[in-house]
Amino acid sequence: MNGTPRLRSAFPSTPGSAQQGGTTRRVGSPSNGSSGGVHRSSPLPSIPQVQSSISSTPTSVPLIPITLVDAPTQRMYTAAVYGLLIVWRFYDWWTLVEAETTSLPLFGKWFLIDCAFLYGVPMLRIPWLEWSDSTAAVACLVHQVLNWMLMFRIPLPIEGWLMFFMKSIFDKEMSISENSVRPASILHNASLIMGRQIINILPEGSVTMNPDQFSFCIGDGHPSIAIPLRFNQTRPQHIELLRVDFDTNVNETITLTKKEMKKPLVVEEGVTIINYITKKPGLYRLQKVVDRSKSEVLRRMSDTLVLACPKGRVKSSASNKCIGDLSDLTMEIEGTPPLKVVYSRTANADKSVHHFQSIQPENFESPLLGNTRSGTLVVAGNQDVSWGRSQKISVPLNESMIPSGRWLYSIDEIHDAMGNVANFSSGADDGEHHYPKGVHLEQDFTVHERPVARLVNCDSRTPLKVPTGRATQLPVQYMTRGRTPDETSHTITWKFTPLDSLTKSGDHGDDYIEESYLAKTAHNIPTIRQPGLYTLTSVKSQFCEGEVKEPASCLLLNPPEPQLSISSENINDKCAGKPIGLLVDLDLIGTPPFVVRYDVITGSGTKSEIVNVKGVRQQLELKPRDAGHFKYRFTSIDDDVYKAHTLGGSEYVLEQDVKPPASASLRKSPENIDACIEEPVELHVDLFGERPFSLEYELVHNGKRERFKKANIETDFFTIKTNPLLAGGEYSLALTSVQDKTGCKIFLNSDVKFNVRRQRPKASFGLLDGKFKTIEVEGQSVQLPLRLTGRPPYTVSYRNLDDSPDRILTKTAKLANDYILADRRGKYEIVDVSDDKCPGTVNQQASTFEIDWIARPQIKVADTSVLTSAGDRWVKREVCEGDIDGTPPYAVKYQQRHKPESGSGSIINKEFEAALGLATISMETSKAGKYEYRFSEISDALYDHDSKKHTPLILEQKVNRKPSAHFIKPGQSYKYCKEDLAGDEVIPIRLEGVPPFSLEVEIKHQSSARPETVKFANIETHQYDFKIPHSKLSLGIHQVSVRKVRDSRGCQQKTEYGAPHVQVQVYDVPTIHPQESRTDYCVGERISYSLSGQPPFEIFYTFNGVSRKAKSQSTTFRRIAEKPGNFTITGVSDKASECKARTNISKLIHQMPSVRISKGREMEIDIHEGGHADLVFEFTGTPPFEFTYTRSTNVRKGQRSQVLETRRDVSDEFSKTVVSSLEGTYEVVAIKDRYCSFSTQGGEGGGKGHKLLQF
């Protein structure tokens, strides 16, 4: 099979099933003139197989060899097993539905089966069934959800359909004969009501052409049509049709052949249709119809039009338009007027549908204009039917095309006068002729935006100024909305007139030059050079003429180059009469603003300076501070048009020897001066002039002024140092005058203000708990509080007077309430303090602070009355296992060692905390044995444990084992019937401990919340036979457990909740009661009984003298009556108590009544108007009988029968005759006798089924 050629779409070959070995068969064309055949080529030599060092993985080979069972068969068996599991699963669900219960065991069963199947199938390694573990887990989860919904009867969306399906397979019930029967076969017994009688009244025949008034047309896609001829209650022998041609008005008589009338279509009983096939347009009419009896059939006169199918096209035009243009579109449509065309217009993504109605030529007349769609369209004497021919009409369409983008006009539908629709869209309705939409039915346009151009930053008030001979860009701004790549290219046209050719009003004259520029992108701008007036005249894109907006004119000017002329005069000192600077006048020509550059040349070098001039004149003052020879050279000038215009010549050079007057100034401090009280202040002064200098200054404070003078200062720098400032507040130091070698005294106006602090920083220790002393844990760091005044940060110097008093320690504090961290005991003293700038003082009354240590903790036994000393340890009296000694929890770290009576011991480390100096610990008594408590470590809130300073404290105590009592057979249930209650039940109990024992047993009834207690004392043996007193027992389940046991050592043990116990069940005799009090039943009814006791039950009964036994798993026993007879319950027993109760409950089952009409057969009778027929009914059962029958419409093909009337009648005999003259189908739907009833419809008795009747 693998040699068979496969299509590419074929399924792949089964993995692992390819043939191994053998010769290769090749199918090919015949060679050497031989006829087609199979050529066998010799097998190729085998390739030597290299023995791999790594063995192949066996997981790829199926567990069952494919040579034994091939892969498809293995998959088929697996699918069959899975299908059987599904059937089994739904069978279990159906048993739960019938029992109206749920089942956790069934859910567990299917959980195991599904997981075993889903995880087991991949282990077989069957090809295509080797899913992963994750897939198996997901499938197992899905199956468990289904199992949970089925086994716990969670409603499913398809439960109704599922129950219907399951009923059809598993719907069986147990009958009285203990046979499994289907209730439907008993409840829906078709033999009880049999027969049907049909009465027909023969009608009159007729024929109609096109009864549904369909519209027809013939076109390219529909070359022929079928005109229906409907015949009612007749069979035609001869048919003649009349056809009138639309183009020639010629009549044509058409006679149908026997072949065309051979196979009429039967629509319903008595109604047939013959379809006449035609390929010619025209007006068609029935002319003559004769039936088989040679009689002419009644014709219902009407004309049928067969038109040419409408069609159309769109006349194409230019595909590129500009926004605002008209569409200029023409639609040519062809058909029988009046016509209607539906077209769609799509502008970008916005689609709209429009239509034109009543499209017809001028002076057009047609009977179709009056909407005449039935009857005759041509009256006698007028054979003109030219109005039905197809005509071609042009429909112009001119619409303003806004917005821009892609536009599409498309013809979607064309309707003709008879309603024929040629639909060219994709959503054609039923009855419409759908045609594919061709190119001739659509016209698309691309609507482009019109470009806009204007000038920016240039108009009549703002000309464009450019240096002479230099080119610049014409500032054109090109804009268009919705710009696309093919629309960015454009052409700009402008007029140019030179300046000397402009008119007096500044406009273009007749002698102008027209220029244009082709821009490839929107950012390309034309370049201009000649001065004159430029005016934009037009802008055009690739497809559209644009609009030129204002400003559209720009004047290009070449301003003159900038020029500078300078004049200067000396600035002389009024005291010495020597020059101290120059006053320079600048006169400029050009376009403001200007930038003038000049160089200052001195003996120390050259320095460049810049002067910004907003107008055409400015005065420049040059006053150097240092003495010497100064040379000023003006190098270049800029205006608004020309840049870096060079200046040359001696007229742009100024020279002067300068001797400035003396001056002095205080150096500015980078921050405000903050002085300390009782400390001097230093200020620095810069001096200018010829040495030596004489300086005068004054110091002002609190309204008082103090003057100072310093003479013979030989340097250009001087430092003023004040006396120590003893008062705090604001001070002002001002320079008043300075005098140099020239002898001219110059008054100064330079001063500086500064603040002097009013206090010195201070330091002292703060209080801890109101004292300058603290007692702390040994070795712990202590924070000694500081109290500081001044401005942080502070520097505090201190020492420990008791530990190295000569060692001075330093603390840098950032807070006024900081602390010193100390970890040694002794007295600490503050030596010195300073803040960020000023030295301070120490408060001697709070300059020391003392630190001392707290004593370490100890542990010892507090109460020795219950303890005895034994060398290095204490021994406490013995206790019983579980006794509590002490009040936990409390303090200290200790070790608890336990040595049991047998086995290895254990060591547990524990700890506690004590709130007071006396602590009590809880001694361990949960397990028997010898306990030793070693208190090895002690620490308190202040000290950690120090093994060198602590001696362990040891306590010992013995704990005795508790006695125990348990049932020899725990969990066993002791049961008996209430009627057989005699003697005492014996329950053996085993005791452990030291006898004698005292025992307390608890007996609790399931319905009582309070148990009863029985006590026994002086039990000398280790096994005790417990007998339950009858006074403690009653009906139901009793739980017996040991509550308490005590031995001779005084140790006792109480049993906790959930301890081993036994049950004593006292059963009552089971009972059975009928759920209905009546004794008469009908075949098919269910007889139900209620059972009391514990299921499962066994029910003993007799039916028609035969004894039978049945089982019931629930408290309801139900059987369906499959045949008549006497049904008697004789006894019942349940499984739990094995007690049997005797009873005698009898029920009588009656046979169902039956009825037959027309001898139980279907009989059809034809009568004429006024005739009648007899309806004969025959009964079986117990009189009197009451029956119901209906008259329905006779069944027609394709139609449902409807009930016309329902009648009831009574008969005391076994037959009855009813006379009827009405047409219809007569059948019985319900029958009653004295005891039972049966109905095939909903009615008395609750629908189809049975009911016992009482008369």
Automatic annotation (TrEMBL):
GO MF term list: structural constituent of nuclear pore
Lineage, broadest ranks: Eukaryota, Fungi, Dikarya, Ascomycota, Pezizomycotina
Pfam families named among the record's database cross-references: Ig-like_POM152, Ig-like_Pom152_1, Ig-like_Pom152_9, Ig_Pom152, TMD_POM152
Low complexity: bias regions: 41-58
Limits of the Nucleoporin POM152 ninth Ig-like domain: 1070-1148
PANTHER family hit by this protein: NUCLEOPORIN POM152
InterPro entries from the UniProt entry: Ig-like_POM152, Ig-like_POM152_1st, Ig-like_POM152_9th, Ig_POM152, Pom152, TMD_POM152
Composition skew (Polar residues), residue ranges: 11-23
GO biological process terms, semicolon-separated: nuclear pore organization; protein import into nucleus
Annotated Gene Ontology cellular component terms: nuclear pore transmembrane ring
UniProt organism field: Glarea lozoyensis (strain ATCC 20868 / MF5171)
Nucleoporin POM152 Ig-like domain sequence ranges: 450-554, 760-848, 1153-1238
Coiled coil: none
Limits of the Nucleoporin POM152 immunoglobulin-like domain: 558-660, 883-961
Name of the molecule in the record: Nucleoporin Pom152
Organism superkingdom: Eukaryota
Domain named Nucleoporin POM152 first Ig-like: residues: 206-306
